[in-house]
Design brief:
Alkaline Phosphatase, subunit A; alpha/beta; about 15% strand; single chain
Length: about 475
């Protein structure tokens, strides 16, 4: 798929052709962008990605390793480590003591999945979830690892996954962005940058739009005092005429993009306040998501807002929740993270299913890499930390097109290496695109003489995950 929405403008530039083509290019952008350029029948219509920034510890949540408890405090065997690189935070430790989880695990659901006591709500929906226990990545530090997951490259500047999907499939709601971003408020941890939901080398219209807590969910969307909707409409109509003339003179496609964004912002002045107003939600909704859902900007409130965006056919919704980077004090820190996210994550899956949306909505939950099986720093009877570990970690999916109650992949008894069915980041990205009806090798964009794609020159669809 080598789609170029600005081809008419370039043809106009190269041929010096008729003045009418510029108007056609602008008019095309200002129309409802509802094309769905799929290569085969999609299983998913929309995606919500619950990104847990900082890297949750798989050994304490999903990947139960009794041997770690048995050998707690013993040295990580050299034959297990295999000389793999460590971060500078633990590379100089005199010892690498194995750290068994302090949390109890039990089997849940008809599928009998092991889940930690930290996730009582997630444990109730395991029959809906597809676990990947064999995720792996090359990145060992947060920023390149998060960038890799979101853009397919460790180097900043590539289009985000949501931007690629928006570019390939277009919008299915003309009054809301195709790609919305929600970030939990008041969280420490690794910083998040707007480039993670940026358009990169794609036209800027495909970047994600961040919705914030507070009176103005989208910055600069409201009209200044004294400006009425009628006045704004007249201004945009006049501006459109001026931009059409400018495109005819300069043949710059970004002019058309800018005008399309103005028009979308005008429509969003009505649609955004409506979708972010939770006052019409019944009490049972807050019983499901938890009382935190009444507090705008919390993870729970963002999960509820994500459901409202999805039911209005926003194509891609990205949530970010920071604070999972537990190098020390993991037992206390991970309790807080799970208390903030467990109930709402499970509630979103339940809510989508009962509304008939889960069958064509893909839900993804996971971080940028895993955590080590050994303790970073001193191991005590009630405290330990875990360093970054790119070699293996767990991610789960639910909904459109994936096998419910399924586990894919396996790690060794130490939880340190993959022993069966590895899944690389690019494999996951290829599979997500496949579920949306896109061949990842054909979703390309030519820039400065090179054809770029989300999965670069790698990746394969993991068919074993598909229902």
């Amino acid at each position: 798929m080598n789609v170029d929405p600005f081809a008419p403008t370039r043809r106009h530039f190269l041929s010096g052709g008729s003045l009418g083509l510029a108007g056609v290019a602008l008019g095309r952008l200002l129309e409802d962008d509802t094309q769905s350029l799929t290569h085969f029948k999609p299983r998913a219509r929309r995606v919500v990605y619950l990104f847990q920034s900082g890297a949750p510890s798989q050994q304490d949540l999903f990947d139960f390793k009794p041997l770690l408890e048995e050998k707690n405090g013993e040295e990580l065997p050299a034959e297990v480590r295999r000389g793999q690189r460590l971060t500078g935070m633990s590379a100089n430790q005199a010892t690498l003591p194995l750290a068994g989880s302090r949390f109890a695990f039990a089997r849940h659901g008809e599928c009998g999945r092991w889940v930690s006591e930290l996730l009582p709500h997630t444990s109730k929906i395991v029959d809906e979830l597809c676990f990947i226990r064999s995720m792996h990545t090359e990145a060992i530090n947060h920023d390149p690892a998060i960038t890799f997951f979101q853009t397919g490259s460790e180097i900043a500047g590539r289009p985000s996954m949501g931007a690629w999907i928006s570019y390939g499939l277009g919008s299915i709601n003309k009054n809301l962005p195709a790609y919305c971003v929600l970030v939990s408020k008041d969280k420490g941890g690794q910083p998040l940058y707007s480039r993670l939901w940026g358009a990169g080398l794609l036209p800027s219209r495909y970047q994600g739009v961040q919705l914030r807590a507070g009176r103005d969910p989208v910055l600069y969307l409201s009209d200044p005092e004294g400006i009425s909707p009628a006045t704004r409409r007249r201004m945009l109509t006049s501006l459109r005429k001026l931009h059409t003339n400018q495109i005819e003179r300069e043949a710059d496609p970004e002019i058309a993009v800018r005008m399309a964004n103005y028009e979308l912002a005008y429509r969003m002045q009505t649609s955004v306040p409506e979708v972010t107003d939770l006052s019409d939600e019944p009490a049972e909704t807050f019983d499901l998501y938890g009382e935190d859902a009444r507090d705008p900007g919390t993870y729970a409130a963002n999960c509820l807002l994500a459901r409202r965006l999805l039911e209005r056919d926003v194509r891609f919704v990205q949530l970010y929740h920071k604070g999972w980077d537990q190098h020390d004090n993991l037992p206390s820190g991970i309790r807080v993270q799970c208390a903030e996210t467990d109930r709402a994550s499970a509630a979103l899956v339940v809510d989508l299913k009962r509304r008939g949306l889960l069958e064509d909505t893909l839900v993804v939950w996971g971080g940028e890499f895993g955590r080590t099986s050994y303790s970073q720093g001193k191991l005590t009877a009630d405290n330990y930390g875990r360093d970054h570990h790119p070699r293996c970690f767990t991610l789960w999916m639910a909904g459109a097109g994936v096998k419910p109650g399924h586990v894919h992949g396996e790690t060794d008894e130490y939880g340190y290496n993959i022993v069966r069915d590895p899944v690389h980041v690019h494999d996951l990205q290829a599979t997500l695109l496949h579920l949306l009806g896109i061949d990842h090798e054909r979703l390309v964009y030519k820039h400065q003489g090179r054809r770029f794609r989300l999965t670069d020159v790698h990746g394969h669809v993991v068919h074993e995950l598909l229902a």
